[in-house]
Specification:
The structure is a single chain. The chain is α/β, with parallel strands linked by helices and about 290 residues long. It contains twelve helices and ten strands. It has helices at about 25-35, 60-75, 85-100, 110-120, 130-135, 135-145, 155-165, 175-185, 205-215, 225-235, 260-265, 280-285, and strands at about 15-20, 40-45, 80-85, 105, 125-130, 150-155, 195-200, 220, 250-255, 275. The chain has a six-stranded parallel β-sheet, with helices on both faces. A four-stranded parallel β-sheet has the order 6-5-7-8, sandwiched between helices. Strand 1 (about 15-20), helix 1 and strand 2 (about 40-45) form a beta-alpha-beta unit. Helix 1 crosses helix 10 (about 225-235) and helix 2 (about 60-75) packs across helix 3. The radius of gyration is 19 Å and the shape is globular. The structure holds D-glutamic acid. D-glutamic acid binds next to helix 3.
Length: about 290
């Protein structure tokens, strides 16, 4: 019998894997980039749908929650790498996650630096959840990497729900996007914006819709491809060789599949039936995790 470290697949009986963590379907925009670069990496998803959306929660509510959920899901999935596929979580809890976990943690950084470099007008917009827009981390990123560019901060919490709706099969209309587009383009300096940072992982899922209804062509930038490259780098560091194809991953959620239709939204990835891990706060008070096999 082989002894297997619960946090590692080094015994070779599990395929190399990463767990992508988010409050909802934002993990999909990151997973698509990872799958394109690393088709042999098995992807697990950790979805804290029981606390969705993250964007309007306080730092005090989110930080311990993220660390507890992501750690429990890493333990359950036996993933080799944690990818925090969520700007709201990454801009808040990366140091704590790194301290809590033995595995590498890859976080999403809003693409301020490449956007400032790409902009010809020197005016960029940063579109994100209220949490990310107001975070010290984001302010520091702009101060250190905007390279003199003017940055228009655009909180767009409604795009999070619209991305979830799109993944449930709904069509996104011009009227639904108009308020956000107005906040980007019809604001002082908005006529100069030529590059828009999609600083929430839900938003690349709406890129085509935003592009279609924007008043003029602009560059929409996100960090997905950079995350995928970072995961590839970590696999090299860990000495992990990937097989040609990925195996079936786990789909872990903190709440049953209800209104947000998690299982359907993730249908493009090979995943086992939804496993409901339960609310971490309830669990620590003695409640048993529920399982919801559909
Ligand atoms: N996808 C998340 C992000 O990148 C958060 C969305 C939310 O739950 O508010 O910020």
């Amino acid at each position: 019998m082989q002894l297997v470290d619960a946090h590692s697949n080094k015994a070779g009986d599990r395929p190399p894997s990463a767990l992508i963590f988010d409050s909802g379907v934002g993990a999909i925009s990151i997973a698509r980039e990872i799958r394109a670069l690393l088709p042999g990496l098995t992807l697990h998803f950790g979805v804290d749908n029981g606390f969705f959306p993250y964007g309007d929660k306080t730092e005090e509510q989110l930080r311990p929650r993220i660390v507890t959920c992501a750690s429990a899901m890493m333990h359950q999935s036996h993933a080799d790498i944690l990818v925090v596929g969520c700007n709201t979580a990454s801009t808040l809890a990366l140091p704590e996650l790194r301290a809590a976990l033995g595995q590498p943690v890859v976080g999403v950084v809003p693409a301020v630096k490449p956007a400032a470099r790409a902009s010809r007008t020197g005016t960029i917009a940063l579109v994100a959840t209220e949490g990310t827009v107001n975070r010290d981390y984001t302010r520091g990123l702009i101060r250190d990497y905007a390279n003199g560019a003017r940055v228009i901060n655009v909180p767009a919490p409604e795009l999070v729900r619209l991305a979830e709706a799109k993944l449930r099969g709904e069509t996104i209309t011009r009227d639904q996007l108009a308020p956000v587009l107005a906040r980007i383009f019809d604001t002082p300096g908005g006529d100069e914006v030529d590059t828009v940072v999609l600083a929430c992982t839900h938003f690349p899922l709406l890129r085509e819709d935003l592009d279609r209804y924007a008043p003029r062509p602009v560059e929409w930038l996100d960090s997905g491809a950079a995350i995928a490259r970072r995961v590839a780098w970590w696999l090299g560091e860990l000495g992990i060789d990937l097989p040609a194809t990925a195996s079936t991953g786990a789909l872990l959620a903190t709440a049953p599949d209800g209104e947000n239709a998690i299982a359907g939204a993730f249908g493009e990835f090979p995943l086992r039936a939804l496993e409901v891990t339960g609310d971490p706060a309830a669990r620590s008070s003695g409640q048993k995790p529920r399982h919801n096999h559909k």
